[in-house]
Amino acid sequence: MQNSEGDVNGGAVVVEKPVRWSKDRLAKLEDLELALDAAVHVNRYLNKEIEAVVQQLQRAEQERHAWQEHARRLARQLAKYKRAAAGNQQQQQQQQRHTVEEADDAQLQQLADELAQLPHSNGSQDAAAAADADLQQQQQQQALVSPGAFPWEDMLDSINTLVHRGREAGWLAAPSEVKMGNVLGQGAFGTTYMAHWRGAQVAVKCVTVRSEAELLNFLREVECLAALRHPNVVPFLGAVLQDQGRCWLISEFMPGGTLAQWLHGDKGPLGPNKPLLQRAQRALDVCRALAALEACAPPLLHRDVKPSNVFMDGSGTARLGDFGLARPMPTSRATLTGETGTYLYMSPEMVRHEVYDSKTDVWSFGVLLAELLTGHIPYQHTFMTPVQIAMGVADEKLQPLLPGQLPTELLVLCHACCDFDPDMRPGFATLVEELEGAVATLQKDAEAAAAGGLFGRLRGNRSIPSSWASVLGQVGS
């Protein structure tokens, strides 16, 4: 059977009732439909806006690249013009200098020829010899320096200034004057030779100059040494500033080697074999040199104080050398930061790349003082690498190890120098005064020990246990 209001399905009649929506529901559906239509319109509008913004960004990026390329072209042209102008100026200066030198040579040669034609007498021979010597000196002076041999144009003014000072002071040397000998040592910054210069045995450090920074370090070292004269600083004699491959530093030859060799010698870092008095005196020598640097105006920072940079002269006096990392102390402390020097002797603030001043040298001297007093390489008891040691110092967990049997005043000085707070470290003037007192006391003890036989030597040994000292006091009484 079939019903008009439904379909027959398996014999059963299904009647579909019409869906009836309430007015509220219909109103909500209409609102949703309007909202959806509005959202579609808004989305279409926003898409157009986004497309416009993207196009604007693309055009701006293209313009930026165009301006950058234009700026690079202008920079290249400017550099080209500067090089051309500098080359022309240098060529003009060289031409003017050659013209003047040729005129001087011609005048001196004419004078020498005229004197040679005069009747021979003692006076004329002396005058001719003097004229010939002046001619040779003039020719030698011409060959001293050729600033154009250095590829760093912005350094030419500094080079020319230093050359002028060297000529006026008489320390500027020509390579032909220096007769090289055997190699004395080799380091990261160059090779040192034994040599002869102007009739004296000297040491010549041939500095490696491969960059503008290395040339600047060499110029600073020459300036520092030329301005510094002190009994405990290696005497500066002269310098060669010829070209990139001939930057030499001439100093007095130190026959005693380095302080490290004097202290450790062939025995290695096994312990002291020099009397404590001598080791304390060498520490005082170094301290006096650093006090001289501190007293300069402005003060000089060595920044690489260690036994291998201290040299022994023929009389056994220690002299501070190797000023390749030295810097004048700037008026603003904020300009000195960074890691410079040797890890074992580097201050914690320098390892941490913090602002530092002359107190960084005080820390390095404190480590050197501990090495002199103990006779051991610093931190060797830790069995750590230099980098690990530096990190331990930077974290304020590691200081030089000092045995308790050392004289109290020396222990106090070491601890004061190696204070983690730079402001708590003493200045070198104070350290010199304290060390002088400590050395004087050690000298008296040594004299008393030498004069008093066995008991005197034991009494003079200020590091013996207190129980022994009391027994010796009873025996002596």
Helix-strand layout with pairing:
Elements: E1 6-9, E2 12-15, H1 23-117, H2 122-142, H3 156-169, E3 178-187, E4 190-197, E5 200-207, H4 212-226, E6 236-243, E7 246-252, H5 259-264, H6 276-294, E8 300-301, E9 310-312, E10 318-320, E11 327-328, H7 348-351, H8 359-374, H9 386-394, H10 408-417, H11 428-451, H12 453-460, H13 466-476
What would you say this structure looks like, in words?
This protein has 477 residues and is α+β, with helices and mostly antiparallel strands. Among the domains are: 156-253, Phosphorylase Kinase, domain 1, CATH 3.30.200.20; 254-328 and 340-451, Transferase(Phosphotransferase), domain 1 (Orthogonal Bundle). Helices cover 53% and strands 12% of the residues. The chain is built from 13 helices and eleven strands. The strands form four sheets. Strands 3-4-5-7-6 form a five-stranded antiparallel sheet. α6 packs antiparallel against α11 (428-451). The protein is flat and about 135 Å long. The termini are far apart.
Short structural description:
53% of the residues lie in helices and 12% in strands.
> What is the CATH fold-level name of the domain at 254-328 and 340-451?
Transferase(Phosphotransferase), domain 1
Largest sheet: 5 strands, antiparallel
Reading off the top of the CATH hierarchy, the class of the domain at 254-328 and 340-451 is best stated as Mainly Alpha
The run of helices and strands is: EEHHHEEEHEEHHEEEEHHHHHHH
Range of strand content: 5-15%
* Arrangement of strands in the largest sheet: 3-4-5-7-6
Spatial gap, N to C terminus: 147 Å
DSSP helix fraction: 40-55%
Give the second-level CATH assignment, the architecture of the domain at 254-328 and 340-451. Orthogonal Bundle
Radius of gyration: 40 Å
Low-pLDDT windows of residues: 139-145
How many DSSP helices?
13
Corresponding CATH superfamily of the domain at 254-328 and 340-451: Transferase(Phosphotransferase) domain 1
The chain-level structural class is alpha+beta
Number of strands: 11
